[in-house]
Amino acid sequence: MHRRMLAPLLALSTALASAGAAPGTVQGQALDTHGKPLAGVQVWIKPVVTTGVAETLTDDHGRYAVSGLPSVGYRSYAWLQAPYKGKTFCYRLAQPNTADYNAFNPRDGLTRNFKWQLSGQIPGEEPYSDLGYFGGSLPLMSAFGQARWATQNDEIELQLTPVGPLIDGSAGKAITKTAPARGMVLDVPIGTYQVKATFISANGKREALQVSAFDGDYSASATVNFKPSGDICKGTTGGAPGRAYVYWKFQ
Fold first, then answer.
1. What average pLDDT does range 89-94 have in this prediction?
2. Which SUPFAM superfamilies does the record match to this protein (predicted)?
3. Taking the alpha carbons of 12, 241, 167, 96 in that order, is the dihedral positive or negative?
4. Over pLDDT 70: what percentage of the chain?
5. What tens digit of pLDDT does each residue of 42-62 get?
6. Considering 2, 12, 20, 160, which has the largest number of Cβ atoms within 10 A of its Cβ?
């Protein structure tokens, strides 16, 4: 079903019915990380098999309702555009229960709520890619021209200390994460971090690395900032709102 064919069937409402959703209706609310309503969130109620999508925005109370839906299978999605330090990051919003990510039929009416989540795995998405997480990623980049190289079995441990508030205004906390030396650190809340790195060889030997936010000016620590992963903020099922590259080299 094409979007233009589906649109006339939709009756959008800004208030949730106190007795629950009416037949053929999906309704809900979007909340931020502090439990406050999120206005202007893009919500999609998307057919599983046919084409087209029912889309709407949450109101000033974070609420939405889409009615007149045919009795077929759907999935629900929502995306938030979040500004941070002069850039805009796109977040796919989480849902309260794992079962909410499954397909559903709105025949009897139902509620699908959303929440802004800074980190965590997205149910049903690939856990080995940054697209499988609500948090951002830090690709690990070896400095050019080193005499030594990391192997497939070596790892790098990052110690991440927030510098100022995170994207949602919270203070954040220090994080330690380990990843393959040729890979990336996954699922980090978007923010500004001071980074230190430790190389862990395949035999377990540890040694401090020099790091940089670009391939130059290496030191024992570096401050890194995330950049948005893309310009489009709806339609993607994956996460990965942003990336911050960490360049490293041996002492």
1. 97
2. Carboxypeptidase regulatory domain-like (SSF49464)
3. positive
4. 92
5. 999 999 998 889 999 999 999
6. 160
**Plot region of 34 (φ>0 → left; ψ -120 to 50 → alpha; else → beta):** alpha
Report how far apart, in Å, the C-alpha atoms of 126 and of each of 27, 71, 80, 155, 181 are.
Answer: 28, 29, 21, 21, 20
Structure pTM?
A: 0.88
Q: Which of 111, 138, 115, 135 is nearest to 125 (CA)?
A: 135
Domains in the chain, CATH or no CATH each:
3-115 (2.60.40.10), 130-250 (2.60.40)
Question: For residues 95 and 238, which has the higher predicted lDDT (pLDDT)?
Answer: 95
Tens digits of residue pLDDT in 138-156? 999 999 999 989 999 999 9
Torsion angle of C-alpha atoms 29, 33, 35, 36, degrees rounded to 10: -70
